């Protein structure tokens, strides 16, 4: 009597096994960045870029001839503690790679340390961290990790680009340093003093202030101090609402300043705030800016992105972060994390902004940087308006990744 039952059970098991085998394999990527709070718009923009790239990779066959990428989403809430909880949830759901960067360098650093500990204790279940926006040079310096890869130019590289430009800008004479009170803000101020001071020894630094990140509602008191100092320019690492509210306060006060920033134009609302202020010149640096001339591959990607999402495309590096991961998986011929990490080292990638290379000694991507200024459309230097305004971006200077490359204190420990 037990034989038919056993046969039926075996047949059912075989059917279930066949069903499992028929399902396409997946490689899970966990997105951990702010999706709520004052910087939610930044996190949503980054997520949209990554999701578009993942969908495009899958539409073209995925990786390894059929493995699909699956994007999991977690809200970091701009908190190291919340990010740790998100990391554990990602691990529980089978993630093999973490994509992050918009949570700030202190949060991303905590994630990298946690991943390194997890990897050491769980061989065979290792994770990678791909960092598209946190630009603390320590992350590819003294605090470098074999498991961490930075796909954005770091603070020193960006400030070197700005310093090179300021060297040729004689009307910058007195500089105030206004920055958010956390690791990145302090570093933006420090590298500003160091590299701009080196490029222009005649410049006077007339003041320095750190303010709470994401909590200042009115920058008028800070602007009053800047005005009292006699500054004509501000080096600020502010981003998100801290940048837009600063521009608003300056416009309300009628204070015509120059600002030097790392990524302002790629954050939603900044161009609108600059156009409404009508005063000041906001100069920033990125791998590309909207309306940049002679960039047909980015133009085509931006057009496809907007057609699918209804949103403006702003950050090629975020788009090509998962594409570089996919290229490394295919190069390795495996989804085994140590093999994928080894394949990412020294990976040369033909990105839409030109060839980029992941430097093996510290896992810092070498990519071009474009110094550009938010300015009114004039039909010549600025041909395209942005954010529904008649303001766009003027190209001021372009530097290659090799021109901006810095030395590194990284002593990479490989498994």
UniProtKB/TrEMBL annotation:
InterPro entries: BCAA_transport, Leu-bd, Leu_Ile_Val-bd, Peripla_BP_I. Residues 26-365 form the Leucine-binding protein domain. Residues 1-22 form the signal peptide. It comes from the Bacteria. The keyword Mitochondrion does not apply. Pfam families: Peripla_BP_6. Keywords: Amino-acid transport, Signal, Transport. Belongs to the leucine-binding protein family. This is ABC-type branched-subunit amino acid transport system substrate-binding protein. It comes from Variovorax ginsengisoli.
């Amino acid at each position: 009597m037990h034989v038919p039952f056993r046969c039926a059970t075996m047949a059912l098991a075989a059917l279930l096994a066949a069903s499992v085998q028929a399902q396409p394999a997946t490689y899970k990527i966990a997105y951990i960045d702010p999706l709520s709070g004052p910087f939610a718009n930044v996190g949503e923009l980054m997520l949209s870029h990554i999701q578009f790239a993942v969908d495009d990779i899958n539409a073209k066959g995925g990786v390894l001839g059929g493995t699909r990428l699956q994007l999991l989403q977690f809200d970091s809430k701009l908190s190291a503690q919340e990010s740790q909880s998100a990391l554990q949830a990602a691990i529980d759901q089978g993630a093999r790679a973490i994509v992050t960067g918009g949570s700030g360098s202190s949060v991303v650093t905590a994630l990298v340390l946690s991943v390194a500990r997890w990897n050491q204790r769980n061989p065979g279940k290792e994770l990678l961290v791909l960092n598209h926006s946190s630009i603390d040079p320590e992350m590819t310096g003294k605090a470098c990790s074999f498991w961490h890869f930075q796909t954005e130019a770091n603070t020193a590289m960006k400030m070197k680009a700005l310093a090179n430009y300021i060297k040729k800008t004689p009307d910058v004479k007195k500089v105030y340093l206004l920055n958010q009170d956390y690791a990145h803000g302090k570093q933006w101020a420090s590298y500003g003093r160091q590299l701009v001071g080196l490029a222009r020894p005649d410049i006077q630094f007339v003041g320095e202030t750190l303010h709470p990140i994401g909590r200042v509602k009115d920058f008028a008191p800070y602007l009053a101090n800047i005005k009292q100092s006699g500054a004509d320019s501000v080096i600020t690492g502010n981003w998100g609402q801290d940048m837009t509210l600063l521009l608003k306060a300056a416009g309300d006060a009628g204070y015509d300043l120059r600002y030097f920033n790392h990524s302002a134009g790629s954050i939603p609302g900044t161009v609108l705030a600059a156009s409404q202020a009508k005063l000041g010149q906001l100069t920033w640096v990125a791998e590309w800016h909207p309306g940049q001339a002679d960039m047909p591959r980015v133009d085509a990607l931006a057009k496809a992105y907007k057609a699918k999402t209804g949103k403006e495309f702003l950050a090629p590096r975020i788009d090509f972060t998962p594409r570089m991961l996919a290229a490394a998986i295919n190069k390795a011929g495996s989804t085994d994390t140590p093999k994928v990490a080894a394949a990412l080292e020294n990976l040369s990638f033909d990105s839409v902004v030109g060839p980029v290379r992941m430097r093996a000694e510290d896992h810092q991507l070498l990519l071009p940087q474009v110094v550009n200024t938010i300015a009114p459309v004039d039909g010549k230097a600025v041909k395209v308006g942005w954010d529904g305004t008649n303001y766009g971006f003027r190209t001021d200077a372009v530097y290659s990744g090799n021109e901006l490359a810095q030395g590194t204190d990284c002593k990479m420990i490989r498994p």
